Amino acid sequence: MSLVALIVFLIVIGVLLEVLKNFIPMDGTIRKIIIVVVVLAAVFFTLSAFGVWDYIGGVSVPRLHR
User: Fold this and answer.
1) What percent of the chain has pLDDT over 90?
2) What pTM, to 2 d.p., does this model score?
3) Is 9 domain-assigned?
């Protein structure tokens, strides 16, 4: 994915969140939950676009046996 496409994606997400906050009537709690989910999804998408998420997913954690 090119850097321009990533920037356009983040701008579109930002505009959609702004429309959600200002023009769509809904309960404040539901709005906050939707915003948090969308922001987390955008962060994970951005991390995977730069290859950071793939690196984090490849780290193995040893299991502890009792």
Assistant:
1) 32
2) 0.71
3) yes
